[in-house]
Amino acid sequence: MAKIATVITDMFEDVEYTSPKEALEAAGHELVTIDTEAGKEVKGKHGEKVKIDKGIDEVKGSEFDALFIPGGFSPDILRVDDRIVAFVKTFMDDMKPTFAICHGPQLLITAKTLNGRDATGYKSIQVDLENAGANFHDEEVFVCQKQLVTSRTPKDLPAFNREIVKLLASKES
Fold first, then answer.
1. Cβ-Cβ contacts under 8 Å for 166 (sequence gap 6 or more)
2. CA distances from 32 to 66, 67, 68, 133 (A)
3. Catalytic residue list
């Protein structure tokens, strides 16, 4: 089963973390939460609390099979940290499964990894995605090159969860 790096900090969109986490764990995968420092507790926009497993200086992309970026304000906060941006970039450069919902693609934009790629995201970042060179698709979920899975909003979670679990299952066979 996959070991999934989950980059997350305060002000994440609660259900965009909890719903995919439940789907991935139900399929037998392990999520490791990562922020600037281990042991701290981060809080979602609606009160969900998450304990951080690892600090960014303790991890390398090569230790993980996939990357998950929940939405909310968390991706925008995280993208000012060059270490987190470099970490995220390794997954895209290595074509490892990468999952981003809502504002999650903001980290991929800052990592300059979306040029020529197909993606979706929250409406307010559509122009940002296009300016980063992405081909924007206004669809509930979009899978690009059997590697990058993106979705727009919490209402798209059933499709997002289905596709991330399906993509990981295809990598196992």
1. none
2. 10, 10, 10, 30
3. 102-103
pTM for this entry: 0.98
The residue type of 129 is: L
Find the largest Cα–Cα distance for the chain.
38
Give the C-alpha distances (Å, rounded to integers) separating 170 from 16, 26, 32, 67, 81. Answer: 23, 16, 21, 16, 32
Contact of 104 with 111, CB cutoff 8 Å: no
Classify residue 155 by burial, with Cβ atoms within 10 Å: 0-12, 13-18, 19+: exposed
- Is the sign of the CA dihedral 162, 165, 170, 171 positive or negative? positive
Tens of pLDDT, residue by residue over 126-157, are: 999 999 999 999 999 999 999 999 999 999 99
- The amino acid present at 95, given as its one-letter code, is M
> DSSP 3-state helix, strand, coil percentages of the chain (rounded to 5)?
40, 25, 35
Query: Residue 173 pLDDT > 80, yes or no?
Result: no
Residue 20: partners with Cβ closer than 8 Å, 6 or more residues away:
68, 70, 99, 101, 157, 160, 161, 164
Chain position carrying tokens 């042991």: 39
Spatial contact of 55 and 84, defined as CB atoms under 8 Å apart: no
pLDDT over 70 percentage in the chain: 99
What are 36's two structure tokens?
A: 């600037």
